[in-house]
Amino acid sequence: MSRRVSSLLTLGLILWAVLCEGSMRAGAGHARLLGGQEPTRQTSGRRSMNDNHQVSDLRALVQILSEAYGNSLDHEGPRTIVEASGLDASDKALQNAAIRLSSLVLNEIAQGPCSLNEEESAEPNLKCALDDGSVRLRDLTDLLSHAAQRLERGRASMSLARNAADEHAATEARMSLLEHLYRLVFTLSMAHFDLSQRGAYLKAARVETITARKFMEIDCIARACDSGVYATSLSELSRIEGGLDAIPASDAVH
């Protein structure tokens, strides 16, 4: 597991660099949820994907989350103190990546070229970043679905084995948090890929957002988490929920 944790930590540094760069671009007028800023709907002059930063951001986040299934396996069985510490670090990297990817996917669906209909998307210089083959978002949705199912089964087994001291409560909360964050990415991505069911997927995404926030609160209390990081994550989940609520019903049903 140490090799996988080392890989996740390296990818975490890549994510940090991506976010820092995104923050600088936001100051130059590229407002986006990934950088923690509310986007404004562009009513004219829609941006083109000559700005490949969007694809780069997506690709970096997808790369981190490609470790989700392996991480779900690492949550099974007893662990040494060193292994538990490494797993905690990889959990946080995956948690942050899932939240930020969810923000970016929602922003693309609601604000960018991904929101356009077939006639509009035929315009030159317009490209939906979510469809870029190098991002491999569709492959990630399958992986995250399997990872979420694995975590769900692991929690069920853990609940059956739980002792009177309830020593597994914190671990179950973390597994539940990751499970619902993975499903949040899945439902938002599928809202783009399966337009006939977009409304249903967006409703499911809102439920996953609320559920993930609940388990984040439990996880934070159980582990005495960093209040600043916790507040930032909660704030971003709240923005995702607000973004989902802001999508007009006519846009949610294609």
Number-wise, the strands total 0
Distance between the termini: 44 Å
Mean pLDDT: 76
Low-confidence spans: pLDDT under 50, at least 5 residues? 16-51
The radius of gyration is 18 Å
Oligomer: single chain
Total helices: the number is 10
Residue share in β-strands: under 5%
Sheet having the most strands: none
**Helix-strand string:** HHHHHHHHHH
Given helix and strand content, the structural type is mainly alpha
The portion of residues assigned to helices is over 70%
Shape verdict: globular
Count of domains: 1
Structure description:
Helices cover 71% and strands 0% of the residues. It has one domain. It has 254 residues and is mainly alpha-helical. The model is unreliable at 16-51 (pLDDT under 50). It is globular.
Notable features of this structure?
254 residues; 71% helix; mainly alpha
Summarize the structure.
It is built from ten helices and no strands. The chain is mainly α and 254 residues long.
What topology does this entry show?
Layout: H1 2-27, H2 53-65, H3 68-74, H4 81-111, H5 118-121, H6 137-161, H7 169-193, H8 198-223, H9 227-246, H10 249-252
Helix pairs in contact: 1-2, 1-4, 2-4, 3-6, 4-7, 4-9, 6-7, 7-8, 8-9
